[in-house]
Design goal:
This protein is α+β, with helices and mostly antiparallel strands. The chain is 52% helix and 9% strand. Bound molecules: glutathione.
Length: 205
Amino acid sequence: MAMTLYGSPLSFPTYKVALMLSMAGEPFTFKFVNLRQGEQKKPEFLAMNRFGQVPVLVDGDQPMSQSNAILSRLAYKFGKFVGGDPAGQRATQEWLCWEADQLLSGIARPRFFKRFVEKPDPTLLDHYTQRGEGALNTLETALAKQSFLGGDSPSIADISCYATVVHAGEGGFDLARWPAVQAWVGRMGQQPGVKPAADLMPMPS
Ligand SMILES: N[C@@H](CCC(=O)N[C@@H](CS)C(=O)NCC(=O)O)C(=O)O
């Protein structure tokens, strides 16, 4: 039975999971969760995800939350994108933890303030923008030395980071300042199954 992904095409964590499924060639059903209307806090949603956030992926009767945990589960289930050799697999897990801690908030918060908040607090915007720049610097150093984060081919670390970094422009980051990151975004964009969020998760009409 096809898996069901609950989330929003505007959510980077949801996009990571949709990308992973698409790159692995796994069909899935997408169910839109209206975050503005608070659907993620309703009892029926909390029964699937105690954290009250998207995404949730339902595989059989097993709901899973936390996008990077979902990516890891799928990578081992499909035997794809786990990272290259054992050192690459360790690095892949490290990047996933770092992405959740630094990269996601460093890019998603400025993007949220710029896209969805009428008068963002400049101190907060500056705080998260500095975090995003620091995260892009970290990626730049790594990607100047290797093609992908887990080795010679894409891993779930690349999928996780790409889903956020490809939208960095919406947060006010000009990727031309990070040429190795920009080249990696280009390489990721060429991988089979990589499509824009809106193509993978059509909104209900
Ligand atoms: N650590 C979580 C973060 C998920 C997250 O931040 N989801 C946001 C949308 S991008 C959400 O559901 N926000 C609504 C809320 O928190 O009520 C993951 O990686 O899955």
